[in-house]
Amino acid sequence: MNSQFQPQLVSLGYVQASPRPNQQELDNFYTNIYYGEGVTDTYHSLYSEDEIKQKRMRADCVVELLAQNLNTKKELTFIEIGCGEGFVLASAVAKGWNVLGVDYQKTPVETFNPEIASNAISADPNVYLNELLDTKVKKDVIVLQNVLEHVLYPEELLKKLQQLLSDDGCLLVQVPNDFSDFQSLAKQKDLIDRDYWFLPPQHLNYFNEKNLPAVARSCGLEVVDGITDFPIEMYLWGHSENYVTNKTQGKFAHQARVSLDLFFARNGLEKYLQFYRAAFQIGVGRNICAVLKKLSVHK
Questions:
Q1: Domain locations in the chain?
Q2: How many whole angstroms separate alpha carbon 142 and alpha carbon 88?
Q3: CATH 3.40.50.150 fits 6-35+49-294, yes or no
Q4: Taking a C-beta distance cutoff of 8 angstroms, is the pair 165, 216 a contact?
Q5: 3-class DSSP state for residue 192?
Q6: pTM recorded for the entire structure
Q7: Mean pLDDT per 10-residue run, the chain (299 residues)?
């Protein structure tokens, strides 16, 4: 844990890192530090064949989850804020949707999904979002994966996305499942020696399945569906060492996660979705992936 920061519970029930950095400090971190060796596990230059399969399968799962919550048959407009390597973009394009992805760099999309590179643009996502809001355009599907935990003002971002969302549209928000009951249990049983998920300034905001609905409602949105992903924290149990107490175990835990997740999907996406919907209900999974709709419309 970076001793400069401490976790602080805010009124809506989620945790923020305190003190808050200013925007200049945050920009410096992402420009000069974030992509350095050992800082983030989010993006890599190379993946194994199984990792690619799992990423494509998971993207198809996310798009199917959205499709099941959309009630319109019109041509859907889709935007992903922070599109990364473009796996979800590629799945949405295959669905026949009108797709656009925005991120600081387009290179990851060109590397891993070059066939849909024309559906991605390089831009500051926040600047682009503000420009889009000025046009009064609406989007039927908005995807925000692993972004909300990084930003200085998460509620402000959700309110902007609520304005951008069409009345019958869906917003998908994925965030790490942190300060969860499962993590608390691991601490109580002395399976871990620190809050390994507390990673400021990389992560400034910490959500779980209990507090995310309240945050959403404060921004005019409601959680209507959700899944998690592979519950890798189960690997904290069953041995005197684990990937938190011994970092060399991390790659083996990750390889097992990929292999087992592909196994779970072997009988089709619908059963896979059922499995992870149940996991969402009990709060087990490394990330939570929630579908949100406008509160006034859903009510």
A1: 6-35+49-294
A2: 11
A3: yes
A4: no
A5: coil
A6: 0.93
A7: 83 95 80 57 75 98 97 86 97 96 94 98 94 96 97 96 96 98 96 95 95 97 98 93 94 97 97 98 97 79
